[in-house]
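[User]
If only I could read backbone structure tokens as easily as an amino acid sequence. I have put the entry right below:
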Amino acid sequence: MKDEFHSEAHPRQTAQAKGHKRRMCY
């Protein structure tokens, strides 16, 4: 759920946000 929200919020920092969101989501 937060994956898409974070991705849209920081489309430029997808790589950085991916690692952070992944740790939080998972």
User: Anything to note?
Assistant: The chain has two helices and no strands. The mean pLDDT is 57. Residues 1-26 form one domain.
